[in-house]
Specification:
It contains seven helices and no strands. By secondary structure, the chain is mainly α. The protein has two domains: 70 residues, Serine Threonine Protein Phosphatase 5, Tetratricopeptide repeat; 56 residues, no CATH class. Keywords: TPR repeat. InterPro entries: TPR-like_helical_dom_sf, TPR_rpt.
């Protein structure tokens, strides 16, 4: 991010996402996305805002872009998995969250993985 105004806009957008005001965050983040579309932190923040505003396809694309730019980003894989889960794409979600949990063995990641596995098991039992 090149200008002070861009950094300031990014920080404002971060605060808005933290406050669960994703649409305002996306409006604030627009110029930042225009200026730094290949910056993983910008795509990750946009993806989170899209996810929180139920724009799942846009969130998916943003998280995939982060992973393309930085394949080792475990958090991007986790939230991509959550995004896929919200779309009912459980097998794909499981794959991404399993990778994230392998890369970063955090109990919270394991909890998400268990949740997805339980959901898949319920569907298999009822089907």
């Amino acid at each position: 991010m090149r200008t002070e105004g861009t950094v300031e806009a990014f920080r404002r957008a971060e605060k808005l996402v933290a406050q669960r005001r994703p649409l305002e965050a996306l409006r604030t983040l627009g110029p930042v996305l225009d200026e730094a579309p290949d910056k993983p932190s910008v795509q990750l923040l946009a993806g989170r805002a899209y996810l929180f505003s139920a724009q799942f396809q846009r969130a998916e694309l943003a998280f995939l872009r982060v992973i393309e730019l930085d394949p080792s980003d475990h958090y991007a894989r986790l939230v991509l998995g959550r995004t896929l889960q919200r779309q009912g794409r459980l097998d794909e979600a499981h794959t991404q969250v399993r990778l994230a949990a392998t890369m970063y063995p955090d109990p919270a990641y394991q909890e998400v993985l268990g949740e997805i596995r339980a959901h898949i098991a319920r569907l298999n039992d009822s089907g």
